[in-house]
Design goal:
The chain has 547 residues and is mainly α. It has helices at residues 8-12, 14-33, 45-54, 57-62, 71-82, 88-109, 116-128, 130-136, 142-162, 165-181, 186-189, 192-207, 211-243, 253-264, 269-289, 291-310, 319-325, 330-352, 358-373, 390-393, 402-407, 415-422, 444-451, 487-491, 517-528; strands at residues 429-433, 454-459, 484-486, 499-503, 533-534, 538-542. The longest helix is centred in the middle third of the chain and has 33 residues, at 211-243. The chain starts with 7 loop residues before the first helix and ends in a 5-residue tail after the last strand.
Amino acid sequence: MDIESPSSHNRHSVPGRWLVVGVVVIFGILIRLYRVGEQLILDDEWHALNAVQNHDYWWIFSHFGQADYSIPLALLFEFFSHTIGLDEITMRLPSILAGILTLLVIPLLMRPWLKRNEIIVLVGLIAISPFLINYSRIARPYALVALLAGASIPLAWRWWHNKDRGNGTAWFTCTVLAAWLNPVSLAVTTGPFLWFAGDSLATLWWVHDRQKLYRLVFMGVAISAAVALLMYIPLTNDFASLANKTGTHQVEPSTFLVALSLFSGSGHLLVVVAIALAFAFGCLTLYRRDPPFFSFLLVIAGAATLAIVFTGAAWINYGLVLARYLIGFLPLFLALTAVGLVQSGHHLVKLLHLPAAADQVLTSLALLILLLSGPLPRIDFRNSQFVHHMSNQFDYDPDRNPVSSALKTVIPESFYEDIAKANPAGDAVVVEAPWYLESQWNPLPLYQAVHGQRVMAGFIGGVCADKLYGELKNDVKGMAFANFTTLRRVITGKVKVDYLVLRSQGIPGSREIPMDFAKCESFVRSALGEPWRTTDTAQVFRIARDS
């Protein structure tokens, strides 16, 4: 039976639908929140953190930075450091909120084009999307861009056709904020101007009506002025940082395959192909329902993709980079996929003469297969502090993931097994010093999978090295990261830990850490005595602490 039919069964099923939606939304919220504060700050999360610890408000506002931090996020983090404090939770709070709002806002905005059961499936797809989940749990702008850019497109359409100032203001706000968060988002959020320009010029030519053109020019000037107001000073002061990230790399055929895999949420080729077919069927269905709106989406998606590809942005040859630059389209990609999945279920039920309720069973089964074939089941959310490590997120096909390949040569030392045996409850704290913030050189999740204890990154700056990349200054106020500590705090007992793993060198091929290991070793031994375990590259100290 069609869930849209006005039968008594459909009316009685409304509470059941709301129950399903509620369960799915709760799951989506919980997986975005679960142990998020225990995850170490990794990779590009350090861009904004370095800006905050090294600079003030004005510098952050007026520069892009060599490492492209998001200006408004860095300003917010600077504010947090002077007020409520900056830590793992507060750094990720904007992304968490954006991830949760995406679950609710995008399905509501797509209601004019999707049936109710399709909206339910869309909520489910957003809830289990590993790409959206990942960026909802890290301190980067992409979860916010997914929400703002994803919302901007239906908002722009509504403004154009309904002449609604509220929708126009919302489109303006989404476009300007997304551009400030990440200028690349303009490729998506300003795409509607292409369609509206053609519509307004056609109206001027055939009807001699200038009102549409006036409205479009007014909105274009308003958005341009607002973006210029926010971006003029950093463009003037630091244009080189932006320019140096263009014309560097080019996309390859494999780039699109990996990006499609990330959008689809699975590393299995057959599942990715199935999702692509569902998306194509959703496109066909939407075209039949509303040809102008589908054409509008097609023009924006095509123009934005070409614009981003032809910039030759740094690392654009990697599917991950292309996917996150196009993340504003992901909610709409999932919306069309939801349409395709539901309508495929309807047709299959009719073809096989199955009971009417079977289409919902088939759709639920499709979502379950998608979830199980993706990266989420193999990520240890319960115990790992490295859920967003690039070995999990760079490519959902482990055999194709270069970070996973780079770490395959790393074999955890036997002392990690000794730590696991000595602490079966998993309540010990292991400090690793020094450490790497970059996933490709960071085997700590491999070690944690063996010993099963809590991990802290140990900073050696001020003891046997100068201030290092990937460490915080000792004198920065307003920061209280639970997963960071210093060598000095460890040996003086100011932080309660059980083991200190002091390494003399990193994994093969990793960047060199400029440190005086002999000085580190002498400093630690003078306070903690002889190491508990010793290897060619590591000394492990067991620390007795008061309960």
